[in-house]
């Protein structure tokens, strides 16, 4: 589906998966997101970068209705995402989310972790689900771990399984929240390769990461957040070579070293 | 956290006073369910577990008597599961004379008063020593047994009088009447004190002391099963009365028991009780018998000094 | 030796009966209490905490006195010995159980809830499939531990006139104190063995669960 979609979106006005306008989020007096306007089109990979505490992760959590918001609106395919609303359960099925912390269910095997929500939420048949789950595991190179428990996996393997667990719901968009931040360096690669593969296949994604090289490789668009606002955005090649703002430039400098 | 701990400590303390200390001061506002109009002891226990009069007991066809179930030979359960002992023998007679069925309730020393205060039994016949403190909480009928101090020593050097003990070491258990008695009356006897009875007996067997003193019933029974030791002093100090107890204010039952004990005295019932239940342990020797048995509620030793004993637990 | 062995067994049955009924009540009430204890309401929290502390601070012996004698004294209501014992051990068991349940739920990381919801599970589905199974696994060894503690503590009930296994043992020892002064060792050995027969399988189950847990954690 993806190639055609992308071709189509080149001709027609791009189909928006996510629309955010005037989003305000605060914890008490602390305003974390201060009027965010943005949208994500089908097949697009948007990478959010910015200094710690700039609100990137909070933004993803708001998109999934895990946090109440204090102003503005979020919609998925035109359907409003409202914290605590009944429709949230429906909407969340279309949003896949992977967290920084390993969040597999420890009492279920890898396979059961992946199969749980298609069967319980989407009422799909066990046979179909298992078949698809095995295909996904194959794709991330973990078919042999299907019967293992999460405790028997490395961090990188856990995150790959978590990705499969979200993908099997056929989400409209994947939200990846610093999924390599807790990993040992040698495992970062195996996870990010899976994400790159997803991007190649046209999966719509919003990614929060501190891996700049990865961001440059995977993103269609970089959004630089600081102090709760979008400071700058653009295609990676432009952004990383010639940031338009002084703040972005300063931020990027923190990743380069010279003697 | 500290705060809640304090609150709960206060609650706990309150509840403990309520139950453990008994309610001899009538702190609860509840009134007894039955109207014992003739009772003059109105300032005492407002126990709402209402006691049963003699008529009520007869009417119900059953009397509940609290006895020990592990104090051989006074109240115990034999190898066939049957209650036996000096107290039980008496309890059976009471039921027979009231013409009712006997239900024996096993009680522990620490809960005897409570069983009466809440009228869960009609009578307690559990080696219950009469003390002033207990008299505040329950009513005692006349005595049917008495207990004094005894002194046991090795056959090789039998102690026969307090004079024999001068300058020697006497083993006692802390908190018993024996400790009090010798501290007050025989300052020239060296006391060696132990927390537990079995420690004290081991000390005697090991020769760490010249003799051991506690209730005569206890030492007599012990010497009986430990050859090589003899009770040289069978009765020392003022005897404590052992008597049946009823719920405070249960005058009809108290009167019935008083009459019963007087009547039984005429047939020398408790001598027979001794022969049946205690002779195996203490021997048929008349002096032993007279040291323990009380007939018709008449104690020959003055019983008014019984108050200084603080033996809440065993015999 | 008469029918002493049968008497010990029937004493054991009294012990087991009181413990099992109390444990069953404690499981049900404790689970409810545990759910209440996870409440964020401060007043509810304080009340639960005070209840738990009171129950813990007071020895079970005192509770037995309160329920068996105190209640009669104050209200005239007369509970039987076994009923009182079950009430006391349920009051205690439910409090401890409640705290275990609370602990088991609070030990579940927040992201377990969040990732369940992210997958589109409804709250009932989340509790049923994700939270309860994990809480139960944390809980089981502790519950079994509590159960064995309760079984052992029932030895106290002789104070309110119940003849459970330990009391039967004391009766047997005492009945034979003149003929067989050393009977105590053998009787206590028999009782020890009986407790062991009941409690050992429970600890084995608990150990097996812990082992399984280590694998999947």
Summarize the helices and strands and which ones pair or pack.
The complex is a heterotrimer of chains A (about 260), B (about 325) and C (about 220).
Chain A: H1 2-11, E1 16-27, E2 30-41, E3 45-49, H2 56-63, E4 71-76, E5 79-80, H3 88-93, E6 95-98, H4 110-120, H5 126-139, H6 155-167, E7 173-177, H7 185-200, E8 205-208, H8 212-218, E9 221-226, E10 229-234, H9 236-241, H10 246-253
Parallel strand pairs in A: 3-8, 3-9, 6-7, 7-8
Antiparallel strand pairs in A: 1-2, 1-4, 4-5, 9-10
Helix pairs in contact in A: 4-5, 4-6, 6-7
Chain B: H1 2-20, H2 54-60, E1 62-67, E2 70-71, E3 75-77, E4 83-84, H3 86-98, E5 101-106, H4 112-117, E6 123-124, H5 132-135, E7 138-140, E8 145-154, E9 169-173, H6 177-185, E10 190-194, H7 197-205, E11 211-215, H8 216-225, E12 229-242, E13 245-247, H9 251-266, H10 269-282, H11 286-292
Parallel strand pairs in B: 1-5, 1-6, 9-10, 9-11
Antiparallel strand pairs in B: 2-3, 3-4, 6-13, 7-13, 8-11, 8-12
Chain C: H1 4-37, H2 42-57, H3 60-75, H4 81-106, H5 110-118, H6 123-153, H7 165-175, H8 183-215
Helix pairs in contact in C: 1-4, 1-6, 1-7, 2-4, 3-4, 4-6, 5-6, 6-8, 7-8
């Amino acid at each position: 589906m993806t190639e055609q979609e992308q071709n189509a979106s080149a001709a027609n006005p791009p189909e928006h998966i996510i629309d955010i306008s005037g989003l305000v989020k605060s914890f008490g007096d602390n305003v974390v997101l201060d009027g965010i306007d943005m949208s994500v089109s089908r097949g697009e990979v948007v990478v959010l970068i910015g200094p710690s505490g700039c609100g990137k992760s909070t933004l993803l959590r708001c998109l999934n209705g895990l946090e109440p918001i204090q102003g503005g609106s979020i919609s998925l395919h035109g359907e409003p995402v409202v914290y605590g609303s009944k429709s949230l359960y429906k909407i969340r099925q279309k949003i896949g989310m992977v967290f920084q912390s390993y969040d597999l269910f420890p009492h279920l095997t890898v396979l059961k972790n992946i199969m749980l929500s298609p069967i319980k939420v989407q009422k799909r048949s066990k046979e179909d689900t298992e078949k698809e789950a095995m295909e996904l595991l194959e794709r991330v190179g973990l078919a042999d771990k299907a019967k293992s428990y999460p405790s028997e996996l490395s961090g990188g393997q856990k995150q790959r399984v978590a990705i499969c667990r979200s993908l099997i719901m056929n989400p409209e968009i994947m939200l990846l929240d610093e999924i390599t931040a807790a990993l040992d360096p040698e495992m970062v690669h195996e996870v990010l390769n899976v994400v790159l593969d997803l991007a190649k296949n046209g999966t719509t994604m919003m990614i929060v990461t501190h891996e700049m090289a990865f961001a440059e490789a995977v993103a269609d668009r970089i959004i630089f957040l600081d102090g709760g606002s979008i400071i700058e955005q653009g295609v990676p090649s432009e952004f990383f070579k010639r940031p338009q703002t002084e703040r972005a430039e300063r931020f990027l400098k923190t990743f380069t070293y010279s003697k | 956290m500290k705060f809640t701990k304090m609150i709960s400590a206060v609650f706990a303390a309150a509840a403990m006073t309520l139950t453990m200390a008994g309610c001899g001061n009538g702190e609860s506002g509840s009134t007894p369910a039955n109207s014992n109009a003739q009772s003059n002891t109105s300032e005492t226990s407002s126990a709402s577990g209402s006691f049963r009069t003699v008529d009520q007991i007869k009417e119900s066809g059953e009397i509940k008597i609290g006895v020990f179930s592990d104090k051989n030979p006074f109240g115990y359960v034999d190898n066939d599961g049957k209650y036996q002992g000096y107290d039980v023998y008496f309890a059976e007679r009471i039921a027979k004379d009231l013409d009712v069925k006997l239900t024996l309730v096993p009680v522990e020393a620490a809960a005897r008063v409570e069983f009466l205060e809440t009228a869960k039994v009609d009578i307690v016949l559990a080696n219950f020593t009469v003390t002033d403190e207990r008299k505040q909480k329950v009513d005692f009928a006349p005595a049917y047994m008495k207990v004094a101090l005894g002194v046991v020593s090795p056959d090789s050097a039998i102690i026969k009088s307090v004079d024999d003990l001068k300058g020697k070491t006497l083993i006692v258990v802390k908190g018993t009447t024996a400790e009090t008695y010798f501290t007050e009356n025989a300052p020239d006897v060296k006391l060696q004190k132990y927390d537990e009875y079995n420690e004290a007996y081991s000390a005697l067997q090991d020769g760490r002391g010249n003799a051991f003193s506690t209730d005569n019933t206890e030492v007599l029974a012990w010497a009986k099963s430990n050859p090589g030791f003899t009770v040289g002093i069978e009765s020392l100090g003022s005897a404590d009365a052992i008597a049946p107890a009823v719920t405070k204010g249960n005058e009809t039952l108290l009167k019935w028991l008083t009459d019963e004990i007087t009547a039984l005295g005429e047939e020398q019932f408790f001598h027979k009780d001794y022969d049946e239940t205690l002779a195996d342990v203490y021997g048929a020797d008349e002096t032993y018998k007279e040291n323990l048995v009380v007939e018709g509620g008449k104690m020959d030793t003055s019983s008014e000094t019984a108050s200084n004993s603080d033996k809440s637990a065993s015999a | 030796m008469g029918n002493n062995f049968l008497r010990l067994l029937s004493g054991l049955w009294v012990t087991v009966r009181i413990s099992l009924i109390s444990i069953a009540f404690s499981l049900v009430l404790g689970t409810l209490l545990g759910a209440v204890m996870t409440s964020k309401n401060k007043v509810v929290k304080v009340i639960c905490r005070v209840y738990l502390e009171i129950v813990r601070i007071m020895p079970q012996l005192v509770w037995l006195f309160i329920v068996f004698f105190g209640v009669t004294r104050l209200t005239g209501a007369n509970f039987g010995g076994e009923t009182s014992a079950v009430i006391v051990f349920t009051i205690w068991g439910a409090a401890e159980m409640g705290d275990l349940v609370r602990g088991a739920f609070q030990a579940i990381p927040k992201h377990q809830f969040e990732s369940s919801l992210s997958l589109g599970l409804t709250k009932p589905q989340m509790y049923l499939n994700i939270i309860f199974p994990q809480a139960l696994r944390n809980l089981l060894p502790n519950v079994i531990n509590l159960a064995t503690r309760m079984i052992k503590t029932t030895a106290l009930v002789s104070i309110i006139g119940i003849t459970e296994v330990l009391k039967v043992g004391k009766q047997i020892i005492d009945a034979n104190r003149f003929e067989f002064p050393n009977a105590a060792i053998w009787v206590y050995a028999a009782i020890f063995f009986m407790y062991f027969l009941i409690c050992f399988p429970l600890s084995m189950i608990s150990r097996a669960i812990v082992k399984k847990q280590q694998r999947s954690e």
